[in-house]
Amino acid sequence: MKAIISAVLVLGLGSFARAEDKANPVGTWKCEYSIGDQKRTAELVVTKDGDKLAGVMNWPDQKDVKVKDLKFKDGELSFSAVRKFMDNEIAIDYKLKVEGDKIKGKAATEFGGEKREFDIEGKREKK
Questions:
Q1: Across 67-92, average pLDDT
Q2: Is residue 18 part of a domain?
Q3: Exposure winner among 12, 64, 87, 122, fewest CB in 10 A?
Q4: What is the CB-side half-sphere exposure of residue 56 using CA atoms within 13 A?
Q5: Does some domain include residue 58?
Q6: Domain tally for the chain?
Q7: For the range 95-102, what are the long-range contacts, defined as Cβ-Cβ under 8 Å and sequence gap of 24 or more?
Q8: Residue 13 domain-assigned?
Q9: pTM for the complete prediction?
């Protein structure tokens, strides 16, 4: 009886590990975040060609911004993107956890000599 319970536990826990390994960042992600009391939206599109990931960010007023240093490891997606604001270029660093069809994490930037961080979350768009 103990052997059966042990086998069930091993197989059951193993499937959880495999599900985590299969986290997939590829797709179109509709994201929301707030800066101050203003809600904002963005779209992240992640593609894969062989083993290489690529991505672009789209904001309502700025489209097709290629992301840099895109990495995906242990379910975490990290990258940076440059946002143009008036005559300024603002680098934003993202660290997002992929969980099924949801992503959630933080974005950080420096603006006016001050580091700012904000929460961001999104959902994968269904095809």
A1: 95
A2: no
A3: 87
A4: 6
A5: yes
A6: 1
A7: 96/120, 96/122, 98/23, 98/24, 98/25, 98/72, 99/23, 99/75, 100/23, 101/126
A8: no
A9: 0.81
